[in-house]
Design goal:
This protein is mainly alpha-helical. It is built from eight helices and two strands. The chain has a single domain, classed as Cd81 Antigen, Extracellular Domain, Chain: A, CATH 1.10.1450.10. The chain has a two-stranded antiparallel sheet. It is rod-shaped and about 80 Å long. The two termini are about 35 Å apart.
Length: about 220
């Protein structure tokens, strides 16, 4: 059940419309940075393997097999190591992921402003960022003055009240998007790690109990 929950959360994060709209963008020959998906793929793999390993543990407990329970414990140790590695990776790269996406956006934004012929699809990339994140412009001087003379790059508001409100910068929105997603990944990893610790303890207790009660 825990493996199924983790797998479901990971698949939801993988196919979330905001991240997929942005991370599948391509600026000329350059692909949007998709390092974010590394952590997602680790969660998907761990969730799927946990479901199989959970079945292995249940069957070993029913059959009172020390071999199956020992295999179950070994698999849990390996999965736990993967979880720790994923947690360390996420902590180290949490700021770098957003930074890479912001650099990709800035490059597309500058090309959209300066290029007369949009050979690298920069306008479409910038518009996708703006519409997906409901933002406009980066956190710099160009971003503040650009909407005055290139308003076609920013999403059009439906009401007069919304037009009077200055839209947030895309740098801020990118930070919020990936920090929120990485926060969910961190919570899922912690929950899985705690469950695994209990599973390892209980599997060893059960294995020792079977060994002590065996009649030779």
């Amino acid at each position: 059940l825990a493996g199924g929950i983790i797998l479901g959360v990971a698949l939801w994060l993988r196919h979330d419309s905001q991240t997929t709209n942005i991370l599948y963008l391509q600026l000329g020959d350059k692909q949007a940075p998709n390092t974010f998906y590394v952590g997602i793929y680790i969660l998907i793999a761990v969730g799927a393997v946990m479901m199989f390993v959970g079945f292995l543990g249940c069957y070993g407990a029913i059959q009172e097999s020390q071999c199956l329970l020992g295999t179950f414990f070994t698999c849990l140790v390996i999965l736990f190591a993967c979880e720790v590695a994923a947690g360390i990776w996420g902590f180290v790269n949490k700021d770098q992921i957003a930074k890479d996406v912001k650099q990709f956006y800035d490059q597309a934004f500058q090309q959209a402003l300066l290029a007369d012929t949009d050979t690298k699809n920069s306008k479409a990339v910038v518009k996708t960022f703006h519409e997906t994140l409901d933002c406009c412009g980066p956190d710099n001087a160009i971003g503040t003055i650009a909407p005055l003379w290139r308003a076609d790059l920013c999403p059009q508001k439906d009401s007069i009240l919304k037009n009077l409100i200055e839209p947030p910068s895309c740098h801020k929105k990118i930070d919020e998007l990936f920090s929120g997603k990485l926060y969910l990944i961190g919570i899922a990893a912690i929950v899985v790690a705690v469950i695994m610790i209990f599973e390892m303890i209980l599997s060893m207790v059960l294995c020792c109990g079977i060994r002590n009660s065996s009649v030779y």
